[in-house]
Every structure is written in C-alpha cells, then in structure tokens.
Design a protein that fits this description.
This protein has about 170 residues and is α/β, with parallel strands linked by helices. It has six helices and seven strands, in the order H-H-E-H-E-H-H-E-E-E-H-E-E. Strand 5, helix 6 and strand 6 (about 150-155) form a beta-alpha-beta unit.
Length: about 170
C-alpha cells in the first residue's frame, strides 16, 4: 500500500496480496484513516451513483511514515517514486486549504485521468517532470467539463538548486 500513493485503492487486489478478507482490510484502512495516517479521495462524476461504485485514490498524510515503511530516505533526485511523492505533496497542500470532501480525481476506463478536481471548479494535473506532460491526454476532460478550469502544476529547476513550483492554466 505504501507504494500505491496517488493510485487507485483496489480492495480485492489488496485482499489477495495480503491474504486477508476485504472486511479485515477495510477495518485496517479505517483505523489508518481515523489515526490520520492516510486519506482517500473519491472519483469525480456528475452521476453520484457512479462515484460511489468507483475505487478511491489513497494518499499518506505523513510522507515520513511512508518513507519509513519503504525504508527509503534517498534524496528526491535519486528516487524512482518522485512523481508519486510530488503528487502526494500537492495533495497535502490542497488538504491544508480544503476539506477532504472538496477534493476528487477524475479517471475513465480508457485510463484518462486528472489528478485533482477541487470544489467542482478547478482541475489540476500534477507532474514532477514537465516533459511527462502531454496536453492532448486532457482534451477529453476539458470537452466533458468545460466549466472546470484546468491547471497544470509542475516542478522546475535543477535538483541541487532550490526548486520552484509553477502552475499554468491551459
């Protein structure tokens, strides 16, 4: 689970991997939520019935705990999971300003995804490396939800210098 930050939480897959029933896993996850170690966000749909059926995304509220569980305290430049860490970092920034109920994500069966939808007004895609951003991947979202303002958050700068975070509207 520690490796899945920013990923979909599939209870059946987790159940098979851990060889535990889904009820036990649900109890463990609820305990982790109530003790403020993890948070989940639900998908964004205009149809609430679809939203309830879809898998949530999971984030750690304390990335130090996550790093300890993975035994990985390397500098960002040397991390394979830097994109996930960066997305989790941005999630924490949003959570400091909004309630969990105001933060969603959007994903289709065709794997189109937008990392965050905030208050049904703003959409944010998060990329650690701007080279990994392909604008055409987000056209479907912008066509379906023209009233939601789409933004890109990305990190620029060299790792040995102080990093700056920028976002731009598309």
């Amino acid at each position: 689970m520690s490796e899945q930050i920013g990923g979909l939480l599939n209870m059946n897959t987790l159940s098979k991997f851990l060889q535990l029933c889904t009820t036990a896993i649900d109890n463990y996850l609820n305990t982790l939520k109530r003790s403020f170690h993890i948070a989940t966000i639900s998908p964004y749909f205009s149809n609430i019935r679809k939203e309830i059926k879809k898998m949530p995304k999971i984030y750690f509220l304390d990335l130090g705990l996550r790093n300890a569980l993975l035994k990985n305290f390397n500098l960002p430049y040397y991390r394979q999971d830097i994109g996930n860490l960066y997305e989790n970092f941005v999630f924490r920034q949003f959570l400091d300003r909004l309630s969990l109920d105001e933060i969603h994500f959007w994903r289709t069966q065709q794997q189109n995804e937008v990392d965050f939808i905030l208050s049904d007004k703003y959409a944010y895609e998060v990329k650690y490396n701007l080279a990994n951003f392909t604008p055409s991947k987000y056209k479907k979202f912008m066509d379906l939800y023209p009233d939601i303002i789409f933004n890109l958050i990305y990190r620029i700068g060299k790792p040995e210098k102080s990093d700056r975070i920028f976002f731009r509207r598309l």
